[in-house]
């Protein structure tokens, strides 16, 4: 086994902690149909049960990762591997490393806060909260799966709750948005399945185990086709231009808690999968494609920012900003060094918190104003001073204000690009200059939105609405505190994944040396 491979032969877990993390919310979802009361009128019991289960699951995640996860070990830990369906080679295979651990934690906190933000759901509450619990299990399984088929099944499973959550509890065009979401992601999944099975059959023996697939490292035209299949398939979820068009529609029609899940967790699945499959399994191909990824990332940053200017709907503007910010994830992945990959990871964590906060705060003033149209709002700062303070703080974090997590993640990505000597100085300089334009555009469209919504001409009908309540305040604080903490003390997040990203970067470096010896230029 390659010593620099980002997996390890760590001892299996003595207790199935990861299985418990995955299955606890799913078990709760099965209890929802058994709850007493009228589906249309009784909402408190399903809500309280879902929040209790998600809180227990989040505390379990924290306990397991604090007690058993070794931050100094970059390989897989807490490995669970049990044969499930032998006829097709499917295993219940779970494991965690530095790439997945922070995203499992992020998924746990965002899902818990999303359920808490759904306090006023009255229509079909048992179905609604049951879908949230099922979504929580599917998300965790995506990040923890170590069998390709298990990963693919969980990837598909999480699509169903999101589709239903948009289609049933969304806005006036919810069916259009939900159908567009499922069509994009389902077609992309076909490419993921084909590429994964092609890899599984390409070795000396058929295998679906991700650790064993990583050892293959195919190159040539076969490796390139698999890489492109994964890139398109996972790129839809990230999303990358021009595969992003489902995102503004989905956010525009989904309610605020579902938008928190979309921005805070689902987009991160795309970035995680690119690291797990494209970078880790296909390092030689990634070296060749990395400059193209950087170009796509730049397009994402600029296009998303420019598109945000054209949006008069608050949620659609924030959705377009997500397209822009996820471009920095592509830049970090394309940097092919430890700093760049670290920046990509930190950007996913940071954006998950910031975007969830922005969509949550947007939901709070939508409940009061019943509109998301920027021209139809104005002067809300006097009526909603605390709401304004939280929205402004989230916007400042999104535009990468120093002291916020967005600043440290984006500056790390830039440092990763500038320190990569495999690229020519011209390519590095051009990348930084063009990407910096996106940094300039971001405060313009975010602060102009704040000005128009909170400081525009006052609309008399909106003058007497009430500010956020204690529950909403606690949710906002729960998202703002980690954003500030990571901004001032980034090591609290970086230490979780550093060992794994360093191993991944070392393997890329080793492959780059092989490529250079074979006269493969990357400049």
Protein described:
- The chain has 523 residues and is mainly alpha-helical.
- The chain has one domain (17-517).
- 71% of the residues lie in helices and 3% in strands.
- The protein has helices at residues 17-31, 44-67, 101-117, 125-144, 148-157, 159-169, 174-202, 210-214, 220-237, 246-253, 256-281, 283-309, 314-334, 338-369, 380-383, 385-398, 405-418, 425-454, 470-488, 491-517; strands at residues 77-85, 90-96.
- It has a two-stranded antiparallel sheet with strand order 1-2.
- The two termini are 30 Å apart.
- The model is unreliable at 1-11 and 519-523 (pLDDT under 50).
**Uncertain spans:** 1-11, 519-523
Percent of residues in helices: over 70%
Q: What is the number of helices? A: 20
Please tell me the total number of domains. 1
Biggest beta sheet attributes: 2 strands, antiparallel
Structure summary:
The chain is mainly alpha-helical and 523 residues long. It has 20 helices and 2 strands.
Task: Chart the SSEs and their pairings.
Elements: H1 17-31, H2 44-67, E1 77-85, E2 90-96, H3 101-117, H4 125-144, H5 148-157, H6 159-169, H7 174-202, H8 210-214, H9 220-237, H10 246-253, H11 256-281, H12 283-309, H13 314-334, H14 338-369, H15 380-383, H16 385-398, H17 405-418, H18 425-454, H19 470-488, H20 491-517
Antiparallel strand pairs: 1-2
